[in-house]
Design goal:
The chain is of the alpha+beta class and 129 residues long. The protein has one domain: START domain (Alpha-D-Glucose-1,6-Bisphosphate, Chain A, domain 4, 2-Layer Sandwich). Helices cover 28% and strands 38% of the residues. It has 3 helices and 7 strands; from the N terminus they run βααββββββα. The protein is globular and about 40 Å long. It starts with a strand and ends with a helix.
Length: 129
C-alpha cells in the first residue's frame, strides 16, 4: 500500500526534511524523540526513536538512494519506505510505502505527508515573501 502527496516545493527541500532526524518529531505523528549521533541519516544509519506511546525502539536505515528513497527497520521489523519523485525543480511527489501488515498506519502516513507539505511549502512562501 502507498500513501502519496504532491508537494509544491523543490524536491531537495522535501528530501532534507525527510532525512533530518531533528525534524522527524515535527512531521511524524508516531515519533516524539530521536536518539541518533548525527542530524542526517544515510545508508546503514542506526539509532533509536521514541514512539507516541513512550517506548524507545531501535531503528536501522536499510535502503538509501540519495534524493529518491530511504527505508528502515524499526524494532527489527520492516517499516515505512519514504520515496521522493521529482517533477521538475519546484514540485515533487512524496510516497510512503507501507508493508501489508501496517495498513492501519496509512492514516498516520497521510498526516505526516500533509505536515511535510506544509513545512516545505511554508519555507518556499517565506523565501518569496
Amino acid at each position: 500500500m502507498q500513501v502519496s502527496r504532491r508537494i509544491n516545493a523543490p524536491p531537495q527541500r522535501v528530501w532534507e526534511i525527510l532525512i533530518d532526524t531533528e525534524q522527524w518529531p515535527v512531521w511524524g505523528p508516531s515519533v516524539t524523540a530521536v536518539d541518533f549521533p548525527k542530524r542526517w541519516i544515510e545508508a546503514g544509519s542506526a539509532g533509536r526513536i521514541k514512539t507516541a506511546i513512550g517506548l524507545w525502539s531501535e531503528f536501522e536505515i536499510t535502503d538509501f538512494e540519495l534524493m529518491q528513497y530511504w527505508g528502515w527497520k524499526v524494532a527489527g521489523l520492516t517499516a515505512t519506505g519514504h520515496r521522493l519523485i521529482a517533477h521538475g525543480d519546484e514540485h515533487c511527489e512524496l510516497v510512503f510505502e507501507l508493508p501489508f501488515i501496517a495498513l492501519p498506519y496509512a492514516l498516520i502516513c497521510r498526516q505526516a505527508a500533509n505536515r511535510i507539505a506544509r513545512m516545505a511549502e511554508g519555507e518556499k512562501e517565506q523565501e518569496n515573501g
